[in-house]
Amino acid sequence: MAKITIPNEMFGRKLGEDLIEKVLSKKDPQTNTNTIIQPDIKDYIYVSSINLYISKEKTLHDNDWDDTNKKLKDQGLRMPTITEFLEFIKHIKSNSNNKEYGLILKEITELRSPWRSEWLDAYFEQENNQFYIYTNNKTIKQPLKSCLMEDKTPGIDFNDLISNSTKQGLPKSNVHGGNLYYWHPRNGTVVGFVADSIGAVLGCGRNPQFSSSALGVRSVREAPKV
């Protein structure tokens, strides 16, 4: 099994408690409104830009990445990809006048204790000089598109990541600077999003065998075809 190198520190310096809210208060570019709107269903939010339902709350805490995927599959569900997670953030942010959505956004991004974290569906593997990204519980394999391949602690701009990421959901090499911490992909690692009282991080260098009661997943449910 490939050796996984994880950074020793999650965060390099203390950030202001209102940082992420300030970053996310900026307007997004206009999105396509010519989509069929599905109603929300119990415990899920419909994200029209990707025609998927994503759960309001995390489940399956204290499971590692592989076990989380297996348990979701048994329920006919799956883990969100990085792109789907960013579209979910964009959706609830653009509807922040909805009190429930605002609380979900705070749960994911707010700088406070205790720390919160959630798994995302991406596994990285290096073969010779080429990196690959696996999704859908490692059943779909694609060459990793050109992206930022160095850690930023801090940081990258959250809004630029949301509006201008690669098709695989990763920051481009010219991403704007900001205060969202970023760990680049490494051989044998997976992805999670973390926030605590010091900062927030998109971590692509996470150990898939890690588990914690603070770590869960937002399940994805397919929407009816329209």
Features:
226 residues; alpha+beta; 8-stranded mixed β-sheet; 3-stranded antiparallel β-sheet; 5 helices; 11 strands; 25% strand
Structure description:
The protein is α+β, with helices and mostly antiparallel strands and 226 residues long. The chain has one domain. Helices cover 21% and strands 25% of the residues. It is built from 5 helices and 11 strands, in the order αββαααββββαβββββ. The strands form 2 sheets. Strands 3, 4, 5, 6, 7, 8, 9 and 10 form an 8-stranded mixed β-sheet that branches. About 8% of the residues have low confidence.
Largest sheet: 8 strands, mixed
In total, the number of strands is 11
- Please identify the structural class as seen in this structure: alpha+beta
Please state the average pLDDT score. 88
Radius of gyration over all CA atoms, rounded? 17 Å
Helix content: 10-25%
| Run of helices and strands | HEEHHHEEEEHEEEEE
**Percent of residues in beta strands:** 25-35%
Work out the helix count: 5
What coarse outline follows from CA principal-axis ratios? Answer: globular
How many domains would you count in the coordinates? 1
pLDDT under 50 segments (min length 5)?
A: 10-19, 29-35
Q: Distance N terminus to C terminus?
A: 43 Å
